[in-house]
Design goal:
CATH superfamily of the largest domain: Vaccinia Virus protein VP39
Bound molecules: S-adenosyl-L-homocysteine
Number of strands: 22
Strand order of the largest sheet: 6-21-22-20-19-16-17-18
Oligomer: single chain
CATH architecture of the largest domain: 3-Layer(aba) Sandwich
Strand content: 25-35%
Shape: globular
Structural class: alpha/beta
Radius of gyration: 24 Å
């Protein structure tokens, strides 16, 4: 017979929060039945109203908080609870870092079953605010006029706001100038349902080292009426402005950017540096959003690769070659592999820009290219992998194992898939010794990790 859940919708239960889910939600239990409670922290006791009951667990929300955790803090942003971006603003930053360390530990020790791996403390930011170098603000039309801000959690409703505390502060000025311009000249705004209107998003990029600023309006068209007025206002108000462009996106989908760029003023790219390596960035380029922590992450990856200048390095999932170019300064040669052709074009240009001649790049899916490389007899000393959230295809891991490098450095943005992959590496004789979480996204539940694997010596 089907067992009934011990909680009922709309009823209130007192519970102690004993754990935290991977997205930071508190977890309490009623007769052993798990209840997920956003915003609740371990150690807290609360009356929780049940909102939804499922087979294995329920969702609830805090009605009354009876015992408060010392890790709790008042969110700095009044919109934090409604916004999809900052799920951890109710935790002190120190507690956020402990949460992230634990998240990586849980994944590697429990999902991966690799209890011997030493998980170091999460490397935090000096200031976990205003760290993002890229912002994308949706623009819409609401009852009270133009709305510019961000999407509410789990929806496409725009919450109008003047600033965001994790973005570079120059964005506040950009949004203000663009808003005034759109209102004053009655520029038409894109309507997602009607699939009509012009302006869809404001995208900005800021070079943290160079100080260069790009403003890009994403439009359902190829022309902005009175564009010269906007350029003039931006030039007056935005220090460091070097680029004002339109991105043409006529597709009626959720994808933010279209394929074409039209120049309104200045250049179509900005340049920035991570460490000593310079990058040219277009609105379409993938570029890490937290340059300060990215430098730390890559330095760690390079340090763990333990390069002496003699090694051949294979960098899989290389994007615009960021890690490859870092590695190339310390290795004999680097081969980067990436599935997106434009990213490889950027990688090659960036290698040239920096006078780096020992980095080569190849377009293709890692799972396709690696088989060819192995057949060609390519034998790297070190392999670096930085896959997307879903992790690596098993064939990639099996082929790396066949290539028998001395070291594998695994950079990951998703601890659970990394743990799964480390387990397969382990079965194939590559042992992870340590893993270091690095916080790239303060206030959010995301965490990056660098894990070092070495080939077990034959017994
Ligand atoms: N190492 C880069 C990018 C990491 S993000 C950096 O630090 O900047 C992951 C990258 O993997 C993305 O650029 C994505 O386009 C690429 N990618 C996704 N699936 C892939 C696959 N199957 N083979 C190769 N690259 C892939």
């Amino acid at each position: 017979m089907k067992q009934k859940a011990p909680v009922e919708k709309n009823q209130v239960y007192e519970m102690t929060i004993t754990g935290q889910g991977s997205e930071g939600q508190g977890i309490g239990r009623v007769d052993g039945f798990a209840v997920f409670v956003p915003d609740a922290l371990p150690g807290e006791v609360a009356d929780v109203k049940i909102l939804k009951v499922q087979k294995q667990f329920a969702y609830g929300k805090i009605e009354t908080l009876k015992i408060t955790s010392p890790d709790r803090t008042e969110p700095k942003c009044p919109l934090a609870r409604r916004c999809g971006g900052c799920a951890l603003q109710h935790m002190t930053y120190d507690a956020q870092l402990r949460f992230k360390t634990q998240k990586v530990k849980d994944a590697i020790h429990r999902i991966g079953g690799l209890t011997h791996v030493e998980v170091k403390d999460c490397i935090g930011m000096e200031t976990p605010w205003h760290y993002r170098n890229k912002a994308q603000f949706p623009v819409g039309k609401g009852k009270n006029g133009i709305e510019i801000g961000f999407y509410a959690k789990g929806s496409h409703r725009i919450i109008d706001t003047d600033h965001c505390l994790i973005q570079h502060s120059i964005n506040d000025v950009v949004v203000e100038v663009v808003r005034q311009f759109l209102e004053q000249y009655g520029i038409s705004i894109y309507d997602q349902e009607q699939k009509k209107g012009l302006v869809r998003h404001i995208l900005t990029r800021v070079g943290f080292q160079s100080g260069e600023v790009m403003v890009c309006l994403v439009v359902n068209g190829n022309h902005l009426p009175h564009g010269e007025v906007l350029v003039k206002a931006l030039k007056e108000r935005v220090p460091g402005l070097v680029s004002v462009v339109l991105n043409e996106n006529r597709a009626h989908t959720n994808v933010i950017l279209g394929p074409k760029i039209h120049l309104l003023w200045g250049k179509t790219t900005i340049t920035d540096k991570i460490g000593e390596v310079q990058f040219e960035i277009s609105p379409l380029s993938f570029y890490q959003v937290n340059p300060v922590q990215t430098k730390r992450l890559y330095e760690l990856a390079v340090e763990q690769a333990g390069l002496s200048g003699k090694e051949r390095v294979l960098d899989l999932y290389c994007g615009i070659g960021t890690i490859s170019l870092f590695l190339a300064q310390k290795a004999k040669e680097v081969l980067g592999v990436e599935v997106i052709g434009e990213a490889i074009a950027d990688a090659k240009r960036n290698a040239q820009l920096n006078g780096i001649t020992n980095a080569r790049f190849r377009v293709g899916a890692s799972e396709d290219v690696i088989g060819l490389l192995e057949q060609e007899g390519f034998a790297p000393d070190v392999v670096v992998i930085d896959p997307p959230r879903k992790g690596c295809d098993p064939f990639v891991i099996e082929t790396i194992a066949k290539m028998a490098p001395q070291k594998v450095v695994y950079v990951s943005c998703e601890p659970s898939t990394m743990a799964r992959d480390l387990r397969l590496f382990h079965q194939l004789g590559f042992v992870a010794t340590e893993a270091t979480p690095v916080d790239q996204f303060g206030q959010s539940f995301h965490v990056e990790t660098v894990a070092l694997l070495t080939k077990e010596k034959p017994i």
